[in-house]
Design a protein that fits this description.
Number of strands: 7
Low-confidence stretches: none
Strand content: 35-45%
Radius of gyration: 13 Å
Number of domains: 1
Mean pLDDT: 94
Structural class: alpha+beta
Distance between the termini: 24 Å
Helix content: 10-25%
Largest sheet: 4 strands, antiparallel
Number of helices: 2
Order of helices and strands: EEEEEEHEH
């Protein structure tokens, strides 16, 4: 289980298929730097209190606090690289919009 300091949902479109992934970030301290991680793709999610648990294809779980949905320095750089390499395939989607789209695709 991963609990990031901040997170966003990426919408990745390849041909006619859409995949949603969590791009998570952790803020580093004095001895360690910032870190980021991207999950294998969202298979399901559960909203519980102040957080949302996203389940991934690999079996990972990302416990993401609702108030932490944002790009920060620890994950913005990789997002920029992805959108520059694939501008027509990668975009951000807010959780409220993801909920509507994800349900429609199931």
């Amino acid at each position: 289980m991963y609990t990031p300091d901040n997170w966003v949902i990426l919408k990745i479109t390849i041909k006619k298929e859409t995949l949603y992934k969590i791009l998570a970030g952790w803020s580093g301290g004095y001895l360690d730097g910032d870190a980021w991680r991207m999950n294998s793709g969202i298979t399901s999610f559960i909203q519980e209190g102040d957080y949302i648990s996203f389940n991934g294809y690999s079996g990972s779980i990302y416990k993401c606090y609702k108030g932490s949905e944002k790009l920060r320095m620890n994950n913005a750089g990789i997002y920029t690289q992805l959108t520059e390499a694939h501008p027509d395939r990668v975009s951000l989607i807010k959780f409220k919009d993801f909920k509507k789209e994800f349900k429609e695709e199931l």
